[in-house]
Fold each of these.
Amino acid sequence: MTSEASSQEGGSMCEEQTISLVDVLEEDEELEEEASAVLAGSDSDHCSYPLGYVKRQALYACNTCTPKGGEAAGVCLACSYKCHEGHELFELYTKRNFRCDCGNRKFSDLQCKLQPDKDDVNSLNKYSHNFFGVYCTCRRPYPDPDDQVEDEMIQCVVCEDWLHSRHLGCMVPDCVELQEMICEACMKTSPVLWEYAAHLAAAGPEEPKGEGPGAEAIPEKTENKEESVTKPSCKRSREEGEPCCRLKELQAGGQKRVQSGAVFWPSGWRSKLCSCAPCQLMLSEAGLSFLLDETDTVLEYENKGKSREREQPGTDPLMSALDNLSRVQQLEIIHGYNDMKTELKDFLQRFAAEGKVGQKPDFVSSLFLFFLSVFSSSSFKQVRSWLHSLVYSQGRQPFFF
Ligand SMILES: [Zn+2]
Ligand SMILES: [Zn+2]
Ligand SMILES: [Zn+2]
Ligand SMILES: [Zn+2]
Ligand SMILES: [Zn+2]
Ligand SMILES: [Zn+2]
């Protein structure tokens, strides 16, 4: 509605639709906060290698330096900018416990410009087909030029692969509270997860009529495991006056679940997992210790980035505009935005000093276009003059101021 008014040559601005540039600058802060959420703890200037295996960071794979057929390698955010500029990069979003490989033995020619002194390999890094630019059980690139189906991709919190929602083997719940997904393959490697799923997760598929081989066979296995591992501990911890094993308590509830398809978990589900010593050992042996760490989640990572700049959550005009872009494009734009933020603020402050008012939605869209132009032309001066001409276009009727 407000965009209509703005197209009327500025003359008919009504007061409810206008905001002061103080508001604009506040909005700028909100945009900044959203930008932080995407890049969060990842440093765009310094190679993360000295930090070791970083708990979670934005990660890239370079198809130019380490193409398919060779060894997989991953590089940090800063290296993606400084050492692999102009290369074909795969945006891996964030991954846990990874140490930057840039310039190590896996790179035959390239030397890291930021941290050239690296061990030959990072033996604890885990690699997947994602590092060669393919995702999901169908092993397709993203975006996929041959895929006409509009489908979202969801990251498994265990293997951290991205899966098409149509390849999850389950219905994707509408509920936004269901924030974490574990893919079927990961579920099947850890029977204890099915135990938890029966009690904590979103409803699974319907019990198949007539036969349910999966549902029959696997619970038996988990019960065996529980007998041997969980039960003794329960006694021990009682003797020590500690609460009994929570897994054991859940199992006493006796709920079962069809063991197929991916599983969606409600927010806070990790806090409901039992962390008694035997359960910790069991999760550790399954390589799932991180599930006991609520700060391991991507959400936590993003929130950390947001709170780093400000405490209160803002609206997301930039993010919604960015939704239509790939992750690589998003990060490029946001990164560039951070770089020239100060420049932009100075520019806006000058208008603020003149007490001009503008229309918020137009400002947001103008600002977005502004970002786009910044990254298609690297000259700030050019962008400034572009912005000036935007402001004073249409016979000096301000477009958004
Ligand atoms: Zn690096
Ligand atoms: Zn490269
Ligand atoms: Zn590097
Ligand atoms: Zn797929
Ligand atoms: Zn998985
Ligand atoms: Zn336990």
Amino acid sequence: MFDCYDKSHVKYERCYRLILVLMSFSYQVKYSSKRKTVAIKIENSCVKVYAPNYISPKQIEEFVDLKSGWIMDKLSFQSNTLVKSILEQRQIAVLGQVYELCFCDGATSTLSESNNLIIVTTNRKVKCKRTVALKQLTAYLKLTLTEHLEKRLELLSEQIGVTYESIKVRQYKRRWGSCDKQGRLTFNVQLALAPTEIIDYVLVHELCHRVYLNHSREFWQLVEAYSPLYRDSEKWLKENGLSLDILKL
Ligand SMILES: [Zn+2]
């Protein structure tokens, strides 16, 4: 399977589509006296309906029914990206640039990148090739992201007028970045797979913690001054966060 990714991938896609035809979904309803309209949100593959108090369950059901095509599309997109490990992807976007991914066996384990192509070669004598390939890809993403962050942080910290102590890139499950009292910044390696404007927002967010070590109104005002579309970025991270969780076996 490891050697002929394309064939296994096609099989997988066909199988997946069949499941989709039979797919059903459940949803949660949140009522609010302040709401005036009904809204549907898909968060981490859960369907949530936000409705005003006066709407009946039957009306909600009709609304959800009307939107079922859109819901299915969103759910299939999210689960499609959610279930796939990076080892099952044929393409990945690194710092917003799309690369074809190719896995093969060789005399040694190496990773090369050129002309929008990333070739992960795994030593044919290695027993668990997937583990080795994943390690190689993770190391590549760490290095690429670190280089990018160093450049961007230098510029952004100067604009905001703050300093920082150090930069580290690590694997986190639920955190994009952090900044401690000493100004030590850490970032999630999976940021490498996000668009560059989203990465910039995370950097601005952490750098603004050099001024406010909290999420106060003043903090968000400062974030907005340097990342005016920060609400969109927050939304993007919320909606796509889990789909970036692909650094798994
Ligand atoms: Zn924060």
